[in-house]
Amino acid sequence: MTAPGAVVGSGAGGRLRLPAWLSGRTLLGAAAIVVLLWLAPLVLPLGEYTHNIVGLTFMVMAAALAWNWLGGYVGQISFGHSAMFGVGGFVAARLMLALGLPFWVAWLAGGLVAGCYALLWGHPTLRLRGPYFSIATIGVGEATRLVATYWSGFTGGSSGLSLPLSGGPTKFQLYWYGLYLLSAAVAVSYWLRRSPIGLALLAIKEDVEAAADLGVDATRHQDLVLFLSGTMVGVCGGFYASYQAFIDPQDMFSFDRSISYILMGVIGGIGTILGAAAGAVVFVIIQEFLLANYSQLYLGLYGTLLILIILFEPLGLAGLLIRVRKLFGYRPRADVAAGGLRSAAVGGGMPGAVEPGVPVGPSAQPEPVSRETGGLEERSGSPPVDKGGSA
Question: Which of 319, 318, 22, 75 has the alpha carbon at shortest distance from 203?
Fold first, then answer.
């Protein structure tokens, strides 16, 4: 196993070191999974329908992970992410139709516009916490949908926009572009979760006022996460526009789409990478089954599923996995219990840090750490004494 910060390669120009929050084993494992998924359609006999659905599922997983950055890491539950999805999709479609830009350039441009739009309404509303922020996002999403519906010169109104089938990627090719989107979303999720920014986000999620007292710039960190989330969801909107070749405001900005991101997080486990991705997979599978068999009841069945999960397994599939592993003797580490973020006090590489599960004997006890405050030197087990000898 390659330790964090270890040398993973060297050349004539110097040595390459990984960041402290990224291990070589994690990097190699993720690369291996991406390669296997990239080669799967070329080796496995997947049908055309299955191939297309898997590519769409990759996009949905990326959008669910992007929502999880705000809802899971910051603790701000958003009901308005369909606004960024629709903005990114329509901007990308207009750029492809009017300027003839390559689809991937249009996707990125649409994502950036969606990220800026997220900052436009998110910077003031992120001062709200809990249900007040959620209610504000409902208003943003609905207002954006109404404006887009009546702005027929840009969105086509209720008639929507049709994209030409020629010149863009086919649904078969979109499988790999969906995989690239998912890979980028997982990489950003891991960075946000393991880096020092992740510790700041965890502090903001627990108590924003206390985090501010400790020097954490809550406004800057929340704005950064909202911009990244809006950008990724906007790029996913551009992907969806190319996948469907037809978009309209009622679909792109629908409240059902915002609810679906929350359902994915709740089903899989809010605040976890694997949970959000797994929740998206389960959501797409159930959606395809219910739409084919119970098209009038699928939203009600989703609501029933949500109630059952909240009542019996609030942590979703991630919590269920931990329960199953506990039956076989697994005990989660302290950093897992804290949301997967390594703490400086628990195995974080700091002097005197103690790894979870490692017994501390007399020889393993950390040395007393002295600290000087106002000319006084304090040691564990002894009263404060100044350097002159007076108490």
Answer: 75
CA dist., res. 146 & res. 89, Å (int): 16
DSSP letters, 243-295, are HHSEE-HHHHT-HHHHHHHHHHHHHH-TT-HHHHHHHHHHHHHHHHHHHHH-T
H helices, E strands: number in the chain? 16, 7
Quick: pLDDT tens for 268-315.
Answer: 888 888 888 888 888 888 877 777 777 677 777 777 877 887 788 777
Domains of the chain (ranges; CATH) run 50-326 (1.10.3470)
| Neighbour tally for 139: CB within 10 Å | 13
Angle formed at CA 185 by CA 76 and CA 252, multiple of 5 degrees: 70
CA pair distance 207, 375, nearest whole angstrom: 33
Q: Is this prediction's pTM over 0.90?
A: no
